[in-house]
Amino acid sequence: MEKKMRFGIKSKIIIGYLIVIVCLFIAFIVLNSQISSLQKERNFIIDHDIEVHDLTNRIEKHLLDMETGQRGYIITGEASYLEPYNSAATSWEKDYNALYQLLNNNPNQQEKLEKIKGSIQDWIEAAGEPTIALKKENNTKELQQFFEKDPGRQYMDDIRSQFTSFRNVEKKSTETRATELDEKNQKIKIGLYGLLLFVTLISLAIAIVLSNSIVNTIKEVTQTIKRITASKGELKGRIKVRSNDEIKDLGLATNALLENIEERNWLQTNIAHAVTMYQGIASVDKLAEKFLFTVSEMTQASFGAFYVREENDKGNLFVKQAAFADRKGDAGRESFLIGEGLIGQAALEKRTFVINDVPDTYQLITSGLGDVKPKSIFIVPVLFEDEVIAVIELASLHEFTVLEQELISQVIETFGLTINGVIRRMEIARLLKESQAMTEELQAQSEELQTQSEELQMQSEELRMINEQLEERTKDAEEKSFELEAAKEDLEEKAHQLELNSQYKSEFLANMSHELRTPLNSILILSEMLEENAAKTLSEDEEEYARIIHSSGKDLLALINDILDLSKVESGKLDILLAEMNMSELPDQIERNFSHVAEQKNVQLKINKAQDVPDIIHTDEKRFQQIVKNLLSNAFKFTESGSVTVSIQRVADHRLTTAMRTVDTDCWLKIAVADTGIGIPKEKHQLIFEAFQQADGATVRKYGGTGLGLSICSEFAKLLGGWISLSSEVGKGSTFTLYLPSLSNGLIDYEKVNFAYEEVAVSVEEAEPEAEITEIDHPVQPVEPSLQDDENVFQDKRVLIVDDDQRNIFALKTALAKQGMTIMTAHNGIECLEMMENSEPFDLILMDIMMPQMDGYEAMQKIRGELKLVDLPIIALTAKAMKNDREKCLEAGASDYISKPLDLNQLFSVMRVWLVN
Predict the structure, then answer these.
(1) What's this model's pTM, rounded to 2 decimal places?
(2) Contacts 24+ apart (CB under 8 A), 210-213
(3) 134-157 mean pLDDT
């Protein structure tokens, strides 16, 4: 049954007042709305009608001014009389248009206005303008003839008549609106009196209902209390109140008081009965049976067990001494250790347990008709001197009430003393019997001691021999420990040597990179300038030579970068930067980068992306792109005809191997690059992933390459948590498949994961992809570089080139001079500072880093610090493209950083940004 909503006396009174206030508020809103409507109509009559009459009079006045001016000019011939005529001729149309717009809701009046307008225009055309023209021509004879007929007078009479008719209609309309307004005002008065009467009736009805509700309820409560008082101690009667207010609270409180008194009487009676029932009992089992029977009768329990503490070699053990409603002796377990089960836990914590949610597997209560599951369990410990000496468990078909629980708790407060007294009496009797038995056993034990003494002498001899053997083994262990310590020191020394070798190797590669990039920078810049042939002085063969030189220089730069990448991977110093990567853009990126390659080689490029591939994954996008580009470059290199297909899929969850499931990832991706090229023999599949290796020597001679690409791809894939597999057949093509996890929770330890490559690759590739794959058909459009005119930005700019290599200075100076810039050069940091102090200010500095006497770092620091040139743009140029070089340059004072060999477009773009800013 749903709970009845509380509706107190205060609430009733407040709601009554609120209803009256709401009615008054509604009446006020209605009245205010009607008054506002009347006010709007009154304002409309005043504003609209007055404006209509005013505009009508003004039009008539303008017409009168025109007539007066016309006659004055004709009579006197003075031009001053034409001024009011001309002014009125332009003003009457404005007032007419305003009047016409004001009457847009009265078509009949607008029609009359149009007729008036026609009459005015007829007068102007027939009488106004012609007479003025005749006067200007001084044609007196025709003027006399005109005024003898005087047609203008008839027009003026018609206009006045039309205005009179127009005003009469407006006057009638005003009177009609005023009459309607009076009628509406009368209706409002009647409605106001009706609302006042309605609110009065509502207020009286609410007052009567509230007073009757309060008075009748109080009378019912008073009569009920009198009946209970007259019953002479009988507390069964209860106060019944139908209303849900403060009076009901009073009745409920009184009923609660009566119930409490009744429960206390019942509690005291049963406690007195329980205390007297176990007097004179000498054994624990009888005491337990009597207690269970009495308590079960008081609480209506249907099942019970009584456990008493006993001590043995396992510690304190609670053993069942009695049971109520036992079924063939299987009422509960026979014993519990402390902390074991609810009985042991109650003894351990010294607290009571009440369980109302009884499981189905609990002991059933047996009756003549069958077995019944109890609804509630009550477990209570019995204490004596703050120690648990017994635990009682009761089960009932109903939930134990708070009163029944309180009864048992008060009964057992003194029950512990009784149990302890019975146990002590039983213990005294037991000890008496045991003392007699122990006397008989002592004699037999003395004989056994003699035998044991002889055995101990033999055991001590054996222990001495064992001790000597242990001493010898200890010496051997110490010698082996010294040998292990020496081996450890030797390994540490070798590890230190390996670290030094790795450091020397990195430094060697950095220096070699610098030495190679410095001349390569000049080769690329000058060959690019020759290739452009801006002056048109080179033949086509010479342009082709320049293109070959530039292409060879780029190939050499790619080789240097590959060697550096491979070195970083092997030394473990390659940083992996995890971030979000947009997979939805990958097909477009592949299309942009390789569509022109496919067009040049007449090879079809296909890109397939499955629908279930997530839009966002977490990986190092730079390394991922490097892997894909390397695989696609190889595919196009070794494919003469046919197609290159890129498939992007998500590995289904049921296809994941055990090794793949150990990786903490959102999903696994499978990117396959398949070609119809020359193919790779099966025995060479592992070889091509090693550094500087290809399938055979003929491949190197025909297609070129260093053999580093696949090795770097394989290492990058491992760093990103995945691997690359190969499926190929000679003459039919190859398929390189990259398996990669989305690392949203950070990098994984590849060595710990320890993938079984062959097992994983086979198990994943055997399954056909179930996801729907969408083929993305992109039109092949060659990408042409955009050329920008930088003359306005670079013209007459002073640029200082600081470099110790004359070849770089010549190349940069030639390229920048073509852009209209003024170039100055310095060979080290000292010359740079001297030129800046003695020359005019420079607009930009191109600073090399590795220079004799004073390097670029120190020079930039002095420019920023000693010369205080904080805003001067300095672009750092270095061929030693190692880790953290960019950060070092920016910390030293560089505005930007570019690594050699330089890309002129990139250099011009960076210079343009800093020169404009």
Answers:
(1) 0.34
(2) 210/12, 210/13, 210/16, 213/12, 213/243
(3) 73
